[in-house]
Design brief:
Its EC number is 3.2.1.-. The chain has 440 residues and is of the alpha/beta class. The protein is 31% helix and 20% strand. It is built from 15 helices and 16 strands. It has two domains: 3-19 and 321-436, Immunoglobulin-like; 35-313, TIM Barrel (Alpha-Beta Barrel), CATH 3.20.20.70. It has an eight-stranded parallel beta sheet with strand order 7-6-5-4-3-2-1-8. It has a six-stranded antiparallel beta sheet with strand order 9-10-11-16-13-14. Helix 12 (270-282) runs parallel beside helix 13 and helix 12 runs parallel beside helix 14. The protein binds 2-acetamido-2-deoxy-beta-D-glucopyranose (5 copies).
Length: 440
């Protein structure tokens, strides 16, 4: 594999970054990435309850999803929030200036829906907008932040997705998102605050991620996910291109949100679904599925409920992984886990050919010291495979399908450690000795 990658690795060895701790939003929530279901990508703004009652945005949809979450193991796997997106409200506020649900599609109102969702041991999410209108043209919250926060709290809402459309001036976005954060706090109710502040600021300037992290529990950075490989790839590429800025601010209480999981829908192949689930775990992303839990194939369900990937996603250390190497059409991403472990994703981005073997040597990884002097390597997806005890210099051959991803967990084994100098020497030796074919 490409030599330029090796030199990059050599440069990385011995480089230590010192990062000052920053204080995330202090509401005690989202200590690990939020898990749940969100209607948008699959159900969008379908309000045609007369002709499409099964799929329209109505209280029935969320009640049925809540039922399925309990019935089909989603809740046991960790999925907890049932989230409403745009198009739930009436076009008019009530006489007291409060938002109200569309009376025809939500005859019981949101409070009753929240009670129902809570009775299942789940939580309810709702949607509003920082500007004058929601993206689909329903009433916005600008000028009503306190009223709307109080209304949501009274209803028993547990999460707010706050969109960023129709802000009269982009320079007001920061203020608006911060004001709503304060308004939510004032209600005294614990409400996860999901923002889109950086997404709407990026066209104008580089957002202040310190301020964002102090204000929100998670934040969207990039365009809406679509049910396609093109979209998933674009999200991954954007994240890698901005990782030095955004990965460093993620941690318990505040996460980068690459948008919904579209697994179980129509647009991704098996391997591409494996890649989305693996990479959302590596990125410490909120796991908000947008699919139809009433009609989902068993393979997609198994993948979304994969306990190894969920454990990586929910790891208590709360560090977001980074892309650390790229070459020959492959990408390597590393996410440090608790107890000195490491999660490793190897993606085959080639869209031609068959399964390819990717030669991996742990000494070449940024986090090579998780295997000093030895480690235990386990491939957890797409197939579970125990690879046994390794030293940093033994080559691992990982087969990956085109557009697929293999995920490994590396567990350190204690012993007499190599010094960084010794490892450097070995890396140099490996890079010279191409015949061995052990380099990345
Ligand atoms: C935010 O709150 C401050 C203080 O109450 C107020 O002056 C400002 O207009 C508010 N901005 C927005 C966008 O709501
Ligand atoms: C409000 O913020 C304070 C600290 O800023 C925090 O201690 C408290 O838990 C927050 N309350 C809610 C309901 O988020
Ligand atoms: C970013 O926000 C933080 C926290 O609010 C603030 O202290 C800092 O000055 C801001 N940075 C810039 C460049 O505006
Ligand atoms: C990811 O990279 C950024 C800088 O490139 C760094 O600040 C951050 O700590 C890295 N994250 C991990 C988990 O290594
Ligand atoms: C390696 O890890 C696997 C999976 O956690 C475990 O079953 C196995 O016992 C471990 N082997 C060693 C030698 O630690």
């Amino acid at each position: 594999m490409a030599r330029s990658i090796l030199s990059a690795f050599n440069l990385m060895l011995g480089v230590t970054a010192f990062i000052l701790p920053v204080q995330p939003l202090d509401n005690g929530l989202a200590r690990t990435p939020t898990m749940g279901w969100l209607h948008w990508e699959r159900f969008m703004c379908n309000t045609a309850c007369d002709t499409d009652p099964h799929n329209c945005i109505s209280e029935k949809l969320y009640m049925e999803m809540a039922d399925m979450m309990v019935k089909d193991g989603w809740k046991d796997a960790g999925y907890e929030y049932v989230c409403i997106d745009d198009c739930w409200p009436s076009m008019d506020r009530d006489p007291k200036g409060r938002l109200q649900a569309d009376p025809k599609r939500f005859p019981g109102g949101i409070k009753k829906l929240a009670d129902y969702v809570h009775s299942k041991g789940l939580k309810l999410g709702i949607y509003a907008d920082v500007g004058t209108k929601t993206c689909a043209g329903y009433p916005g919250s600008l000028g009503h932040y306190e009223t709307d926060a109080e209304t949501f709290a009274e209803w028993g809402v547990d999460l707010l997705k706050f969109d960023g459309c129709y802000m009269p001036k982009w320079t007001l976005l920061a203020e608006g998102y911060m004001n709503m954060s304060i308004a939510l706090n004032k209600t005294g109710r614990s409400i996860v605050y999901s923002c889109e502040w950086p997404l709407y600021e990026w066209p104008f300037h580089q957002p202040n991620y310190t301020a964002i992290q102090q204000t929100c529990n998670h934040w969207r950075n990039f365009a809406d996910v679509f049910d396609s490989w093109t979209s998933v790839k674009a999200i991954l590429d954007w994240t890698a291109a901005h990782q030095s800025l955004i990965a460093a601010v993620a941690g318990p209480g505040g996460w980068n949100d690459p948008d919904m999981l579209v697994i179980g829908n129509f647009g991704l192949s098996r391997d591409q679904q494996e890649t989305q689930m693996a990479m959302w775990a590596i990125m410490a992303a909120p796991l908000l599925m947008s699919n139809d839990l009433r009609d989902i194939d068993p393979q997609s369900r198994q993948l979304l409920q994969n306990r190894h990937l969920i454990a990586i996603n929910q790891d208590p250390l709360g560090k977001q992984g980074n892309r650390t190497a790229k070459g020959n059409g492959f990408e390597v991403w590393e996410r440090p886990l608790s107890e000195g472990r490491l999660a490793l994703a190897v993606t085959n981005r080639n869209e031609i050919g068959g399964p390819s073997s990717f030669p991996l040597t742990i000494a070449l990884l940024t986090n090579w010291y998780c295997c000093n002097p030895q480690c235990n390597a386990t491939q957890v997806t797409p197939k579970y495979r125990e690879l046994g005890v390794q030293n940093p210099f033994t080559p691992l051959h990982i087969m990956v399908n085109p557009t697929g991803t293999a995920v490994l967990v590396i567990t350190p084994i204690k012993g007499q450690q190599y010094t960084p100098q010794q490892v450097k020497k070995w890396v140099h030796y490996l890079s010279e000795d191409k015949a061995k074919n052990t380099v990345l």
